[in-house]
Design goal:
Layout: H1 21-33, E1 56-57, E2 60-61, H2 71-74, H3 79-83, H4 85-92, E3 99-103, H5 109-118, E4 123-128, H6 131-143, E5 149-153, E6 166-172, H7 181-191, E7 192-204, E8 217-218, H8 220-227, E9 232-238, E10 244-251
Parallel strand pairs: 3-4, 3-6, 4-5, 6-7, 7-8
Antiparallel strand pairs: 1-2, 7-10, 9-10
Bound molecules: S-adenosylmethionine.
S-adenosylmethionine (SAM) binds next to helix 5 and strand 4.
Length: 255
């Protein structure tokens, strides 16, 4: 179950240029509910001190966090066809018995599939800052009778993962939303086992044909600019997804 109190309200957004009436309705509803940045300016009483959210990191504008009302988009029928999610999963080379983290899991599109791949001997740590996303995921896991998922409500600076314990941290369309990228990179690094990996999937900024708003895309160059100085080395790249980069990082020798 979530381990900390509810997160701050988050602003809505939409990703693809062609948006239908349903999306407009969702967006205006979400916008009416909350038009605030992803992280608060100061921490709520009793919580750890969260510094003000960054709007830029190393020259890149940080995107606003996707609101949970947008969750149906994450499990849309066309996602497999558009993003070839099965191929992404295969490229991760997840093994039975592993401890895998789905960072920024949303309503669990990848979490449920990862849970099957690690099997009963393994586990999936599903981390998100929005309790509503975790609730949606728990309902889906219950319905699918999957029991090896641990829900973790992180904060903008702390994913609350046990130190040195994770074989793989998967981030799909999440990293570009981190309001505190440096703190998150540090915390994820601490959570990895010595040969543990990060698998980062981000929509390709270099490719004009990827129909996603620029703010929600990243270039390889920018990704390296952010990961390498934060104690990571690039160990593998998978360039066969239709829309996304998939880059694998391990801890560099020294932070
Ligand atoms: C676009 S959704 C992607 C969900 C999922 N990875 C997928 O591909 O279906 C991004 C998610 O990242 C979460 N998120 C944003 N910042 C986060 C942070 N610092 N720690 C954990 N989750 C975060 C958001 O709440 C949202 O649910």
């Amino acid at each position: 179950m979530p381990t900390v109190s509810a997160p701050p309200p988050l602003a809505a957004r939409w990703w693809t240029a062609p948006c239908c009436a349903l999306w407009l309705t969702l967006i205006s509803l979400a916008g009416a509910l909350a038009e605030q940045p992803a992280a608060p300016d100061s921490a709520p009483a009793g919580d750890e001190a969260i510094p003000p959210a960054k709007s830029k990191y190393k020259g890149r504008e940080i995107a606003v966090t996707m609101h949970y009302l947008g969750a149906p988009w994450l499990v849309r029928e066309s996602r497999q066809r558009e993003e070839d999610c099965a191929r992404l999963l295969q490229a991760l080379d997840v093994k039975p018995g592993q401890v895998v983290c789905d960072m920024g899991c949303g309503n669990g599109f990848y979490t449920l599939q990862l849970a099957k791949l690690v099997g009963e001997q393994g586990s999936v740590l599903a981390v998100d800052i929005q309790s509503e996303m975790l609730h949606l995921l728990s309902e889906r896991a219950k319905e699918a009778q999957i029991n090896n998922i641990q829900l973790v409500q992180g904060t903008a600076i702390d994913p609350k993962l046990p130190s040195g314990s994770v074989d793989l941290i998967l981030l799909v369309d999440v990293y570009h939303e981190f309001s505190h990228p440096q703190q998150m990179l540090k915390a994820m690094r601490q959570a990895l086992k010595p040969r543990g990996r990060i698998a980062l999937a981000e929509f390709r900024l270099e490719d004009r044909n990827v129909p996603i708003k620029l703010l929600h895309k990243m270039s390889k160059q920018q990704i390296l600019k952010e990961f390498l100085p934060n104690g990571y080395k690039l160990v593998e790249q998978f360039d066969k997804l239709p829309w996304q980069h998939l880059m694998f990082f391990e801890r560099a020798e020294s932070p």
